[in-house]
Structures are given as C-alpha cells and as structure tokens.
Amino acid sequence: MTHPETLGVLLAGGLARRMGGGDKPLRSVGGVTLLDRAVARIGPQCDGLIVNANGDPARFAGLGLPVVADTVEGFAGPLAGILAALEWMAAQRPGTGWLVSIPTDSPFLPADLVKRLHAARETAGTALACARSGDQTHPVVGLWPVSLAADLRHALVVEDMRKIDRWTARHGIAEAVWPTAPCDPFFNANSPEDLAEAETILARFPEA
Does the pTM of the predicted model rise above 0.90? Predict the structure, then answer.
C-alpha cells in the first residue's frame, strides 16, 4: 500500500427495515455472508478493520474484530457510525490519520477502493473523498480524516445533522469514479429482491 495508513470501518449498525429486520450483514450471497465478503474485499486494502454495530457485539465475535457502537443515541445514521469509528481511532490508534467507511450490504466492492479514494482526495486537494459509479454518488463509501472528528460530533449532536452530503460539503469532497459495467461495484443489497439480484450478478460474473 502506497497511501497513508488507513483503518477500515464496516458499517453494520443499520436497522435493515427493507430486509425485514435483523442483521442484514449476516445474510449471504454466493454462500458467503455480506459481512465476510466485505472483510475479504476491504481488509487487504487497510491497516486494520473495525465493525460499527449496536446491540450485543457477541454476534460478530467470529470475525475477531473490535466492535464499536454508536456514541450518539437514537440510530442517527451512517454519520454516527463514522463518528464512533473516528473517536475509537483517536483513542486506540492515534498514529492512524485516515478512516475508510464501507456499507456491509455491498457485495462487489472494488479491490482498488482505498487507493483511488486517496488519489482523488490528493488530486483535488480536499479533506474528504467518496465513491461514484455512473451518475450515482455513494457518500457512505468515503475517506475521512480523524482530524475532523470534533467537527463531526458538533454537527451531529449540536446541529442535529444527519445527511452526509450536508456535512461533507462544508469541507470539500472529491469523487473517485468507477464504471458500472460489467456490474456496479457499489450495488446495495437492501431487500430480499436485491439479494436475489446479487446472486444473479454473481452467477454471471463470478469475479465480481
């Protein structure tokens, strides 16, 4: 890895309403859980991984990774998970300056994600970067500096800000762009129908 030291956070704290509740990351595609697929994709690109999830952390014990709960109450969305990870890093990994966040419902994440996010940020001279495929931006697939943790906490707790785009616009954000062929690397499996579609994609493109 030629980019700065970067920790990865697997965002697994959602309520999974469209999936019928439960732990969406523990659903499977191609006989492998979404969470395990995420670890396999992002792990080699990072200097360590943590899981952001609320509730009993024991259900993720098989991963052998730290499980970090939200530090803002009320299921405040992905920004709360990102904040929890940034604050965990400041306390536990003070030498690591960057965090990459990924949703655990994207089974086809690219193998060059972290490298290209850093390259986009450096080229644009911005504090933040996120992924884009086709005409769709993916703000949850992002690169975050630990130095902005206090600012993010203020936005969440004092300003009650929940929308990622509103906060990132304050600091400047670059986009790293991927093609959507042969399949979108940021495809989200949010529902049982999406899981079935992911199975179809995987059958057609086994290397996806």
Answer: yes
